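Quick note —
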Amino acid sequence: MFAKAKEETAKSYEAPYREGSLTDKRRSVLHEGITIKGDWSSDGIVEFGGTIVGDLTAETLVLTKDGKITGNVRAHTVMVEGQIEGTIAAVTVTIKSQARVNANIAAEVISVDAGAQMNGHLQTKAKA
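Predicted structure written out below.
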């Protein structure tokens, strides 16, 4: 009755409106050596350098070069330097040159730096 349905495609993410700058928001920093098995969510900025097998939801995600996510990512802003396998749903996605991404991405703005390893479907959507 309360089971979560599996998501087969990246769904859009709409962050709740909040006043204030990014410096006013809650910040979580998890570096290499951290392993999470299961879903995790934050209403602030997440700088992630560990490993997660599960879904990650955040206002802003910065996946550092040592970070690895196997699962679905939902965030307003995503910056990837590490490795993702799954889906990404966001407003803005930036894939840096050292990133390795095997994911379907749905966002309003997607930028991919030269040298990034990409495999998946990119879908840009107009602003709602």
